[in-house]
Each structure stands twice: as C-alpha cells, then as structure tokens.
UniProtKB/TrEMBL annotation:
Family annotation (Gene3D superfamilies): Nucleoside Triphosphate Pyrophosphohydrolase
Top-level lineage group: Bacteria
Molecular function GO terms recorded: bis(5'-nucleosyl)-tetraphosphatase (asymmetrical) activity
Protein name from the UniProt record: NUDIX hydrolase
Record key words, sorted: Hydrolase
Location of the Nudix hydrolase domain: 15-143
Species of the source: Streptomyces kanamyceticus
SUPFAM superfamilies reported in the protein's UniProt record: Nudix
Any single GO BP term: ATP biosynthetic process
Database matches in CDD domains: NUDIX_Ap6A_hydrolase
Amino acid sequence: MAPRGGEYTVTYKEDVVRAAGCVLWRRSPVDGGLEICLVHRPKYDDWSHPKGKLKRSEEPLAGALREVEEETGFRCAPGASLPTVRYLAQGRPKEVTYWAAEATTGHFTPNREVDRIIWLPPVAARNRLTQLRDRQLVDALLSTLNLA
C-alpha cells in the first residue's frame, strides 16, 4: 500500500548493478616490498582497483578474476574476500565484491578500458586512488595479509 498522498518506489535485487574485482598485489621485483596494482581508466580519467560488471549468472569470484586479467593482463591467485563496496553509479545502486589476489603471471598491454597500470607501495596506492571508497580496500588488504 502506498503512503497517503504519495507514491513509493520498490527496489528489487535485480536493479542492483553487480560487479566484482580484486585488490591485486605482488612483491616488488626490486626490494620485495608489497606493491598494489592500480588501473587508469581513460573514460573516467581515474585510478582504481581492477573490477567490472558481472556477466549474466557469472559467479562473483570468476568475474573478478576475469576482470583482473582483462584489465591488467595478469592472472592471479585469489585470497581472502575483502569488504563489498556499495554506491550509486549513474543513479543506480552498484555493489562490487572484492578479493585480495596475488599476481602470478602476465604482462600488461594497454586496451580500450585501461590505458595504464601502476604498481605502488600501499601508502602511495591509497593516495593515488581517485575514490575514497577504494582506499578502505588497501587497509583491508593490509589487515588480511597481517601487515596493518
């Protein structure tokens, strides 16, 4: 029943844009320190963690691994789940499920979605991220790796 004198909107779970990604990390080939991979998306001119929308009936972890490889060229070994991030994107609710993931093999080639990647120590990665909501994921990764 609608409230008196007004209408209401019902939001169904199907209305949520579902996406998944990873906080991709590695040990520096120079000094062995922790490095986090960030992607630059020219469409938005931003720096973020690799992520993307899930395909119909795709499991979130499978989608996260697919998106990491598509955007960075790296395969990875998934680890612990990280916090799910929820926000509005173009007026629609979006839910991004994240995992910690260690880069294993691969090589970056610029593509339509991502023109650059950068590997940075955690503090520099946190500062480079465009969205504040992405910065909490760096802290969650460090906690998961017992480095916080």
